[in-house]
Specification:
Layout: H1 4-21, E1 24-27, H2 34-40, E2 46-49, E3 52-55, E4 58-60, E5 65-68, E6 74-77, E7 85-87, E8 93-95, E9 97-101, E10 110-112, E11 118-120, E12 123-126, E13 131-134, E14 140-142, E15 145-148, E16 162-165, E17 171-173, E18 176-178, E19 182-187, E20 193-195, E21 198-200, E22 204-209, E23 215-217, E24 220-222, E25 226-234, E26 237-239, E27 242-244, E28 253-261, E29 264-266, E30 269-271, E31 275-280, E32 286-288, E33 291-293, E34 297-302, E35 308-310, E36 313-315, E37 319-324, E38 330-332, E39 335-336, E40 354-355, H3 359-366, H4 377-385, E41 395-396, H5 410-441
Amino acid sequence: MITRRVKVCLGIMLLCLFIAHTGTVHAEHKKADLQRLLDQASPGETVILKSGTYDGPLLINKPLHLKAEDGAEVILLNSTAQPALTIEADQVTVTGLRIVDVSVKEEPSILLKGNQAMLDRLHIQTGAAGIMVRDANDGKIMRTTIEWAADGVRMADKGNGIDLYNSHRMHLQDNAIYDVHDGIYMENSDAALVTGNRFERSRYGVHCMYTKGTVIQNNTGNLNITGAMIMNVQQVTMEGNTFAKQSENVNSQGIFLYNASGSVITDNRVEGNRVGLYVEQSADNRLDRNEVSSNFIGLQLINAASNTVEGNLFLGNVVDAQARGSESNDLSGNYWDSFSGIDTDGDGRSDIAYTINPFFQGLTQKRPPFQLFFQSPGMVFLEGLYQTERDKWATDRSPLMAPPKDSLSEDRKQAGSGTGVAGIILLAGTGSLFYGMRRRKT
């Protein structure tokens, strides 16, 4: 006869065993069979990995949290043709792992197929696509570094850093992506938030295809072929991004809109690119308050219609703007530093319109080799003579006479003040030198 006290004790023991089984699992040895450990874990458990190297490939097919122990260096090493890590379940979190998967192959280093996943603080060295997301929604990829690690591969043959297809409402934040094909590629994937990422030395930093409602904000792209390629999209917002030094290729642009509609491009900085803002076959977009500086061409409009271009700053570009077949856009209140206007009423806007001469664009469309004469004295002279159908030229009807005082970016202001201080020091040094020479002569 089992007493009541014995029954209570047995119940407590069973409860303790249940809690221990459904809580946290520690991988004690770096040579442990990690796949077996994941298979044995119960849904919802946290598997903590100690420092060491673990063999891939891995498959997670249940909700789990796989993480490195605090302060541990955990390496997932994969030398197979399969993904180093495949996630098929919903609500999976992977944190703090270094994934070394440098074989050149078709499969990605991480294949994500589950909803509501979290990939955080990973470091991926890849010879394929870094993270490929397929038919998975509402996930987050954050604070992750992805870098190409295979030698002798052309850029055209590399994989993308993060590759989304038919995956909606993804949150991609504070990632750093280097030397891949496209940094972040999104196709048929709506309402993604792409914020705080860095892209370098790739084809396109961020690339949208057939997306709607994508938000791209506060990202930085340097030394890519194109900073942002926005193609066949609707209602994309690009805000607060910086794209610099996309200039080493004949097709380089800071921001490229192609067949885009209903999108807003605002408060971005594009500097030192071949073309700062390139808009082709795009309509009903708004480009405002962008700082476009030190590019070969600031703004290029090609067969673009019904776009609003307002309040932008064009500073130090070789050519502020070029246009062809783009007469129906609304340009107003931009500052073009190569333009000298007249302000008779003192409202800060020129009474003379700024017109974009289409001569060079029309000529090079028919005779592409003539691009070699870009800004040559003869071409500038011919452009000045060309006045055909002037009423159809893209025109800023009321350009600003001076840039707004609060429009320049902080680092540009600091650079300007630094230049001023350096000039004062140089002037003082020169004066001292002349004074010393004068004293020696006397």
